From TrEMBL:
Pfam families: TRM5-TYW2_MTfase (PF02475), Trm5_N (PF18093), TYW2_N_2 (PF25133). The keyword Secreted does not apply. One of its GO terms (biological process) is tRNA N1-guanine methylation. The keyword Methyltransferase applies. GO terms for molecular function: tRNA methyltransferase activity. Residues 79-326 form the SAM-dependent methyltransferase TRM5/TYW2-type domain. Keywords: Cytoplasm, Methyltransferase, S-adenosyl-L-methionine, Transferase, tRNA processing. One of its GO terms (cellular component) is cytoplasm. This is Methyltransferase.
Length: 328
């Protein structure tokens, strides 16, 4: 039976599959199929597929039925995957344990199941976890061909931002100077180096920087990544005027570091400023902050205003891409 499929060249398959998965458009009842170098990705709602993709009728094989947690529970639980860790966000402890048991009894591959036990807290942005299954909070997460080793107990990491990270990395040119001001374990920095950039990656969390160095070696880019443990406001003394691209992924307070960003910026520099703002004006406050920090030295041009995801009722996690050009 023919079903709607997105047809893309094989080399674009993973990026396209991730885009469709993020939009809940994948048809999980049929298999993704390769024919003569093209990938056919089954979708559930052809009319909702972004117009940049080609949708065709195709007859893919039916996927073999597997037992899911929903089959066991009788309802669809909410969870995230991070490597071989499954992450729950349940206020009811008994319900969390019920879901964890169903995950173990299903065909879902998971070595560890955890439940969020606190909000993100402190300067290092870590949280507490209830480990329901397994005994390790370490995992290897794979994202667009990059492997990232991390421990969710000691570092912050969000798998939800994979598509956004890929959007930024696709803009990077070989030989570009990229400074990641809040780098974590390297989800921006490592792919940027894989794209050919020279990267300086800074973080206040010493454990994250150790993972970052390991991940640079794991992905064969340690010669292009300089990992620095410390406060970026102090680290900037050694890199004034160096950066051609700045990544500022600290949504609640990145604007407080814009003076440092301006110190780091070269004659021309693109800033990716992540922010949390109300839906009524998601980009205005960030742009005003950039202009306040940079206007004396730079012309400021907006390249793109990107809503990354919903964060809370009436609030968005956004990214403002701006170009700074130094005045003569």
């Amino acid at each position: 039976m023919n079903v709607p499929c997105v047809r893309v060249p094989r080399e674009s398959g993973e990026a396209t599959r991730q885009r469709l998965a993020d939009a809940d458009l994948l048809d999980h009842e049929h298999q993704i199929t390769v024919v003569e170098g093209d990938l056919y990705i089954p979708v559930v709602a052809a009319d909702s597929v972004p117009t940049e993709f080609e949708v065709v009728d195709f007859e893919p094989p039916t996927r073999e039925t597997q037992t899911t947690p929903a089959d066991i529970l009788g309802y669809e639980p909410s969870y995230e995957r991070l490597g071989d860790i499954v992450i729950l966000d349940e206020d009811d402890t008994e319900r969390a344990r019920e879901i964890a048991t169903a995950i173990v009894d299903s065909d879902l591959k998971a070595d560890t199941v955890v439940n969020r036990a606190s909000k993100i807290k402190g300067e290092l942005r870590v949280r507490d976890w209830d480990v329901l299954v397994g005994d390790s909070t370490e995992t290897v997460h794979r994202e667009y061909g990059t492997e990232l080793h991390l421990d969710i107990d000691t570092v912050y990491f969000s798998p939800r931002l994979a598509t956004e990270r890929h959007r930024v990395v696709e803009q990077i040119r070989e030989g570009e100077h990229v400074f990641d001001m809040f780098a974590g374990v390297g989800p921006f920095a490592i792919p940027a180096a894989e794209a050919g950039a020279d990267v300086v990656a800074c973080d206040l969390n010493e454990a994250a920087v150790e993972f970052l160095r390991e991940n640079a070696e794991r992905n064969d880019v340690s010669d292009r990544v300089t990992a620095v443990h410390g406060d970026v406001r102090e680290v900037a003394d050694d890199y004034e005027g160096w950066a051609e691209r700045l990544i500022m992924n600290l949504p609640h307070s990145a604007d407080e570091f814009l003076d440092t960003a301006v110190r780091l910026a070269g004659d021309e520099c693109i800033i990716h400023l992540y922010d949390i703002q109300h839906e009524d004006d998601p980009f205005g406050p960030g742009l005003a902050a950039v202009r306040a920090a940079a206007d004396e030295e730079y012309d400021v041009e907006v390249i793109e205003e990107k809503i990354v995801r919903s964060y809370a009722p009436h609030e968005y996690n956004v990214c403002l891409d701006v170009r700074l050009t130094k005045r003569p």
